[in-house]
Amino acid sequence: MRAPEFWWASPRRPGWQARLLAPLAALWRVGAAIRASGDSEDPGVPVVCVGNLTAGGAGKTPTVVALTRRLQAQGVEPHVLLRGHGGSVSGPHRVDPDRDGAAEVGDEALIHAAIAPTWVSRDRLAGARAAARAGARVVLMDDGFQNPHVLKALSILVVDAEQGFGNGRLIPAGPLREPVETGLRRADLVLLIGAEEARAQVISEWPQLRDRKIVGARLVPVATGLPLEGEPVVAFAGIGRPGKFFDTLRQLGARIVAAEGFPDHHVYDARVLSRMLRLARGSGAMLVTTEKDAARLPAAFRREVMVVQVALEPDAWDVIDTALDHLTGH
To answer: Which EC numbers characterise this protein's activity in its record (predicted)?
Structure first.
């Protein structure tokens, strides 16, 4: 399911759809309060939670990847924990990238498992305990900010500066999983991802952010060895915001012949893939997609597609490093 456009209206003008859905949003608020009322338990290892307040992508996975590499560079081997959205495994299950596929563990788990021990578990507490028993010194939890059952040593809230908190309404009237004020109170650090102008706009619309520790960051394309400047491409993406990926391609100088967005974690069937491949070949273009989408493609089809990755670049690592050093004892 794709997020409706009215979710991303200004909080000052949320739109008639948001007002119409306000009663259902009130029910969501009650449910969110009940879900957040459980007790937190220590799994036996420090847990760093990377989450967000809105439905859809905000940059959590690139953030966890960046934190993983940062800790590894300091001699600390973290384990990654996630629910495994889109997969069938309930866990706790340690991901084997040579045997597991996206249908079993989800696309994000395969990205993490390529660089660090990764666990999929719908019961996050059980997953964190399994990681601790397996020798994890730190658990990096991709999503789960609203999960009350795992005691978090550090909670990092990721915010997409281009969208902020949308119209400021709760699901289904808006994109929020919980009220902004409630979520910000639990955040130790806010990672604001996007251009400086967009960051300033979000802080202007949501002055509550000024009371939190904020680190600015950007998502930048990773060099692929194949320059895209002036090259024709047929692009597709099934992520939280496909338009973000298409904008990245334009920044790389690609000439987009066609671009098709799909819902987050979309499972591609052979008919759709064949259609896009014919379009690319017929127009003399490269077929390109995201790293997350590539994890969901049939192995035989991946050789037909160029994968463009993005990496998180904080403005400065010092604030994040200080928080991580406190956990690891460096």
So the answer is: 2.7.1.130
